[in-house]
Amino acid sequence: MAYQAKDLNYRGENCGVHNWITDGGQSFYWHPDWLHIAEDETGLYGKQEIEVEQGGEVTKGHAVHTILKKLNELLKGSDHA
User: Is the model's pLDDT at 1 over the cut of 90?
Assistant: First the structure.
């Protein structure tokens, strides 16, 4: 079963950094200045680049889409393990 937006619990924003957590306890972070989602609040440990049209503005929706893409890739990978 694939992850959907309803599977992410938005934890809010602190100093511009948005945080989501899965029911399994996996956290994802994003700041509007980052072109990636991250595994830590500093953004230094990127998990996945955010895909956006050239010159387009990255939004919270892009971040959610990227988080779901990453989770579903991980899920697909664990099915083949």
Answer: no
